[in-house]
Give the backbone structure.
Amino acid sequence: MKIKVTSIYVNDQEKALRFYTQVAGFVKKSDFSQGPYRWLTVASAEEPNGTELQLALNDDPAARTYQQAMFEQGKPAARFYVDDVQKEYDRMKPLGAEFTMPPTKVTGSTIAMLRDGCGNLVQIVNLDRWG
């Protein structure tokens, strides 16, 4: 069994596509519509044929409630693993990334948290065991 696609709810798919490609550094993988429905995914530039992240519109009440609750509780909607959190912070900050937590050493890892501008907090992480 493999994880091929996972989803994150966003309140604006165009804005999300800009953030996840131009700031986070992912590449657009799929983008097609059927009526009002749009299937939009991105993937890691390092593994373009790897797991895809669906940028799913939060157009139903359950999705919107879930997204807002996670944001209000300060919980990340997604975590992305990087080789060097400080390096990614330094790269993303000038691109307009709004960090809510700068690179911070915690037990077993270094983390930073930022807003995606589409209703989510996302965390970038480097585990010590991968260092």
